[in-house]
Amino acid sequence: MFVACSQTVSASSNDDEEKASATDSSDSKGTGDGSSGSGSSEDVLDKDCVGEPGKPWDGTTAKEFACGSGTKLSPYIILTAEQLAKLAFIVGANEKEYEGKYYKLAADIKLNDGKVIDDKGALVADSAKLHKWTPIGNSSVAFDGTFDGNGHTISGMFINTTSSHNGLFGNNRGSIHSLDLDNSWVYGGKQTGGVVGYNVGTVQKVTNYGSVSGIEDCVGGVVGNSNQKDYKDNSTLKNLLNMGVVTGKKNVGGVAGCAANVTADSLENRVLIEGYGFVGGVFGGIGGSSKNDIRNLRNTGKINGLHFVGGVSGHCGASLSISSQDKASYSCPKLNIWECGNVTKAYNNAIISGKNYVGGIFGVACNGSISSLGNVADIEGDYGAAGVVGSVSFITSSSLYNTGNVNGKIYVGGIFSYNNEGVTNAAYSAGKVDGDSLVGLMIGYNYNTTMADYYYLKQGNQEPFGLNNGGGVATPKTENEMKSTDFAKLLGDDFTYDSGLNGGYPILAWEKE
């Protein structure tokens, strides 16, 4: 064994995680062999640390970690793939002496050498020759310690199964941070993610460059499913970026497939996401919970689905169903159940296409508060297509805009296709809106809505509402009027004007942060 007395590792703490955002991650890694690491050098390791970093995994499991005692001040150091495999073994074996311990990567890890996937996310390696990774944690036992990736990269991971709880970590109730996953292939059943399959703890400052696909519910580029811990505390997702193609059946998202009872901040997807139902750029679906607190979401990857499709999430709250006859429907009673919670600051800049309930931000939103949402890309659907949200019920919304074109058949709108008893203010739409029935430049069908400060780009004789049944009014503006500082001020403090951005139309102030 090699004594890594000269090996170095950067100091890291949870405080460091607050200083980085998902957009700080480089998108230049692509799908290479993961040989270039991002770790830095500050603190010299203990002279007794053992292991030869840089070598591809041989499929075995180390007897000991490189060094360390598992405390916060002296975490277990992981230098090799074999030592990482030891972590998977002790968690799977539920060895109590390792519960709640601290672990830190001190080198990049190669679980398989060479190119595993191509630049489109397809498997190109000979799967018969690849070492299969056993996730850290499974459906029965979760990792409950603190794993500090220390800015390093794990590459070459290969998972190919129909079972649940798949990813580098299959099940997490602890903390995982400061890590990249590159050149990896993950294929599994429900609760499948690139980095974490099922999470009730904290995942932050993580980027996925690997390919993720699943045959059941909750498939995400970074996390498969994120939910509450012990039926009381929100899970946390923060500073996460997905750069790997994600495909699946239901609840398919760029960052997380499913999420409920979640606190989320600074999540981004930049690549293609495809699925059948409940498909979104950041989340496949946001489950109903008044405790949801979600902010700073961006999508720039094309999203393709069939039912409940959104640039940020296929849905937020609501009780939804897709029948065996391929019919989509949802229910949103005014009882503060199946609630969206609070979502603020979300942006989409990629084509969103589907069939039923398709929106630039959400396919459907039910009960709760949404604000500071912007879409600048084209939306394509049949039933319930809109620039911001396909269909909303009992939602309080503010500071919304759309400059993309919306094409549909029935219930089609620049902001919402259908707004049921909502409270909404400060919105504008400047895109073209085309359809066959219940088509409006602002809202396809507006029912008993309290609204103010709604503006639309005047386009011939086209009306702002396909049908306005007990709702408010919207005011037409010319293109020159909309492309001005005065118009941004009219919309309120959440908006700003920059002639060089968004074709001259106002944007949300947070987009420049």
Task: Please give the number of β-strands.
Answer: 49
Number of helices: 4
Radius of gyration: 24 Å
Poorly predicted ranges: 1-28, 30-43
Structural class: mainly beta
Q: Biggest sheet: strands, sense, closure?
A: 24 strands, parallel
Distance between the termini: 49 Å
Mean pLDDT: 92
Q: Helicity range of the residues?
A: under 10%
What portion of the residues fall into strands of 2 or more residues? 35-45%
Dominant shape: elongated
How would you explain this protein's 3D organization?
The chain is mainly beta and 513 residues long. The strands form 6 sheets. The protein has a 24-stranded parallel beta sheet that branches. Strands 7-10-14-18-22-26-32-35-38-42 form a 10-stranded parallel beta sheet, with no helix packed on it. α2 links the parallel β3 and β4. The longest helix is centred in the N-terminal third of the chain and has 12 residues, at 81-92. The model is unreliable at 1-28 and 30-43 (pLDDT under 50).
Q: Could you give a quick summary of the protein structure above?
A:
With about 525 residues, this protein is mainly beta. About 5% of the residues lie in helices and about 45% in strands.
